[in-house]
Amino acid sequence: MLAEAASDVLAGFTWLDALAVALILLAWVGIRWLIEHSPDHRPSMGRVMKDYRREWMTQFVTRSPRIFDATVLSSLRQGTTFFASACMIAIGSGLALLGNTDRLDTVAEDLIAAEAPQIVWEIKILFVLVFVTSGFLAFVWSHRLFGYNAIVMASVPNDPNDPRALPRAAKAAEININAARSYNRGLRAVYFAMAALAWLLGPVALMIATAITFVVLWRREFRSNSRAALIADDLS
Q: Rounded distance, CA 202 to CA 56, Å?
């Protein structure tokens, strides 16, 4: 019985679907590795920002009052809250759509002029939800880390001559870096979730969307004007 059900499901997909799914998963993991393990001679935007976050916490030790730092940290937490909430809405909408795939089936047939079993559309929606759920978990963890960051920053002595000041500031910087890393992973998951929606139009559309998403992320991390501005002083 289970073998027949599995056979029916597989019958709704082709080798192109398998290739497209493997490609987007490889791109998702690959761009993460490229960004987080970029070489020293060509660091990604994420790696460049690590130094600025450490410098932020160093300056934080001698800054008085520290209202500016609290404001910046609050805005970072608000960003994680916004995207986590958006992911929750998307997850709920996707689950609701699983119970009403007939409408999606009709729209998809109009776009690609093809018929497919209902289970095919459900699997494609679930595939999108995998990315959205990954993004949600990353944003939630990032929000929690920024909370820890706030507590550690609050424990940094106001006296820069206090021997505990710089070590605690360094700890705060590392927590901030970890929170930002999780936040960026969540953003990339959202990017690839949008690319995964193209699978509703077929495997070729998914491969094209994957390629576009990969190139956009790569360019923003390695060839953007913002990155050039950040490293200009370091290279001069």
A: 47
